[in-house]
Structures are given as C-alpha cells and as structure tokens.
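Thread: Newbie trying to understand structure tokens

Hi all, I'm a second-year student working on a class project, and my supervisor (Dr. K.) asked me to get a predicted structure for one chain before our next meeting. I've only ever worked with sequences, so writing a 3D structure as a token string is new to me. If someone could post the tokens and maybe explain what I'm looking at, I'd be very grateful. Here's the chain:
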Amino acid sequence: MASVAIVKHKDSFKKTLNEGLELIGGLSDLRSPVIIKPNICTISDGTGHSVTDVKVVEAITRLILETDQGLAIKIIESDSQSKYADEAFEKFGYTDLESTLLDEGFDFSLVNLSKSPLLKANFKGRYFDNPELPDLLVKQHYYVTVAAAKTHYLTFITGALKNQFGVLPRKDQSFYHPDIDDVIIDLNQLIEPDLCIVDARIGVEGWNGPKTRPLGTFILGHKPASVDATIARIMGFEPREIKHIVESSHLDLGSIDPDVLGESIDSVQVSFNPPR
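---
Reply by user tm_fold:
Sure, no problem. This is what the structure looks like when written as tokens:
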C-alpha cells in the first residue's frame, strides 16, 4: 500500500483521479463519515493554486459517492491566522458545492473544526500528550487529504503530511511553529490518511507564491510519506533531507523510496528553488 501513482492531468479531474486510484488499488475500506481535508490556507490565494481547487474536491467526492451513495461526506478546515474557515468556504466555492450536493440528496456538509466539540485522544507522541482535538477526528472515519504541491519556509515542502497541520482548531496556529515537524508527525499518526491526493498541476514556490511552475500531474497514494517523498523528487529535492518526511517514514506512514506507478519521476520533474 506504499506505492504512489503519478498521473498526467488531461481534461477531466474525475477521469484523472480515477486513473490514479486504479493504479494504487482503489479507495479501500470506505466507511462513514468520509472526511476530506483540502488545503485552504488563506483567504487570499495569491497564485490561484495555493488553495485546493474545489473542483478537485468535487471530483473525488463524486467518485466516492459512486462507490456508496449513502456515505456521509464532511469537508473540514479550521480558522487560522490568514483566514476564517467559513469565509474561505464561501469564497472558494465550497459553500456552493455543499448546496449542489445537498440538492442532489447526498449527506454532504462543511465543518469548521474551530467551532467543533473537542474530544481527548488517547495518544502520546513527540509533541502531543493526550491532546483535545475536534471530535470528528478522534472518532472512526475515512480520511482523505487533498493537498497542493508547494515549497514552505518552515517544512521545505508542503504536501500530504503538512496538510494535516490545518486541522488544529486554534486560530493562532503559529503557536506550533517552533515544533512544527514533530507536530506534523504526531498529527499524521493521530489522523492517518486513508487516501492522499496532491494537485500538482501547478507547483507553487512558497506557501502562497508568488512563483509557480507547471507540473501537469496529480500524485495519489495511501501513505502520506510515500506521496511526499515523490513530490519532493518531482520538485528536484532529496526527501532524505526533509525531516518530517524521513521521521514519518520510520513510523509506518510510508516509504522514502516507494514504488512509483504511472508516469516516471524523471518525465515530470521540474527544478524548484529551495525555500528561504
């Protein structure tokens, strides 16, 4: 399950994602609720590619619902220093998507984790000791992380692993920045993704740009460290030099050297500037 698919995007998000899913063995063990975590990092997307495209989230949602129409789907995000989640849901089209899918009769909702009830998780990690987290995350679920391919000044890259940082319900998330690698590693153990998708059609240098580089691909896998090691290589970086990827690979969260299916890394590789 540590294999990773690299698929070139053509004309349909749904077809592209389905191609990737077929390569990695499908959705596997779907259960309700299905929690989908896009990367909605800001209210002001400076590049047009720093925030997860709602159309990508709609595509994976519809693929999931084609498997089981009775599943409850919940899109999650928290408030952060650069946005209020509810305003960002509205601005980036997620509120419209909610209305559309509800009108079609599906159990679909947006959840601002900063307003959710908290539940203590039985977990002792590198940073967290029995933390209180939004109850959705502590209870049984199927978790999909839908990230964007970017570099980041704190974590070198931001992909599937880093996307879980956004579930922390406090608005001043910079509180965790001094220990960000350990926080990311703990969160991925606490809320291990069942499916990881990275939209790498356009890679972004910096968490919100300003520079972008065309990559034209999606990367999919079941293990976040495997996916992020692959993204790092596509960007021209060595994943063994990125702490949170290396440490996560030691904790059954993936492999530094996963099997890569579909397109080869060399065929899609574009050199990014290292983050400052």
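A couple of things are worth pointing out once you decode it. The radius of gyration is 17 Å. The chain has ten helices and eleven strands. Feel free to ask follow-ups in this thread.
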